What does this fold into?
Amino acid sequence: MDIKPGFPFWLVKNGILADFPKLTRNLEQEEVVIIGSGISGALAAHELCSAGFKCTILDKRMLTSGTTWASTGQMSYEIDPTMLQLSQQYNEAFAVGVYDASLQALYDLKRAFQQAAINPGVESKSSLYLASDKKGLKEIDAEYKLRTKHGFPVSYLDGRKLESEYGLQRRAALHHGHAAQMDTYRAAVGLILHHVIRQNLTVYTRTAVTSMEVSANKVVLVTEEGFRIKARYVVCAPGNEAGMFLPKKVMSLYSTFALVTQPVPADLLWKDQCLIWETCRPYFYIRVAQDNRLMMGGEDMKFRKSKGMKDTLVARKAKSILSQCRKLFPRIPVKPEFSWFGVIGETKDGLPYIGQFPGMKNVYFALGHGGNGTTFSMIAAQLIRNQICGKMDYRKKLFAFNR
It folds into this structure.
């Protein structure tokens, strides 16, 4: 699946950080095979290698060149479905469990990077969740009450405070200091190289897995070129292409669009350079990237394959995103320099699917779908590690296929 017309900022900024050869032989006794070298696969490899497993990563493309290249690297304990929405769909205890897991994942991500001695530009940030309209104002009021009831870090900013402190003309917003931003591409490659150097991880790129045979005590993968890989465990982390390994459809595909501007004057940036997003769906979001460039995105739409229209579509969506930025910050002169789109998978409830699909023994899925992929990927890596090791984990029921 081609997901990157245009110029993703991270590829231009970093260049190709690493790459590996394709598989050219059968593999007979692999302990853990991970399909996918994006941030989900990289974190899974980190957790499993750190727990003493020997792992092998297979990727059909160049290293980490799927959706991770297209990530804008924003992270927050807030996720796309609000706590209120999850409480209404499931119950309050379920919603609290999901938000607890997301909050902890932020700290665990930083710890993982420290363990691997890598620096993917992680910066702690605060976050503003803006009410887009009257409906959004009601949602924010109810969300604030529910989060404070359960002790989550959040404060309420009314319209006057938003204008005086941030120069924003919106009715209200939720604010908290538990967010971060980073270079997701550099993070994934750094984790992989850390374990390759320690010789507990082997990587093959340009190696497409076309079929999977599951039995009681092993899993056999077959590649596009006919090579067979026998593994004790398989972790499926191929992002939006996971559907080929599942017996039924569990997600819908959406195109999401992003752009990075030319550098802007530092004195025109908003307070704390916090992450900003909003209640309407699809939502607009914005953050400050390297060199005082603005990174922003949104305009999600149902994914459809179309030849010859990708660049036109990216340009049209970038123009709309830029217009939203100018409405929010009319004083900041913005000119786009890089624009691209990526494809994300979304489930009906906005939560990822993690763990075993019923009937598929020794196969574990790390599907961090939606707009919170990196924190979900951290949860998936830990949860799968615990499941393989036979350890109890309260998060299993939150993200299971049969929840």
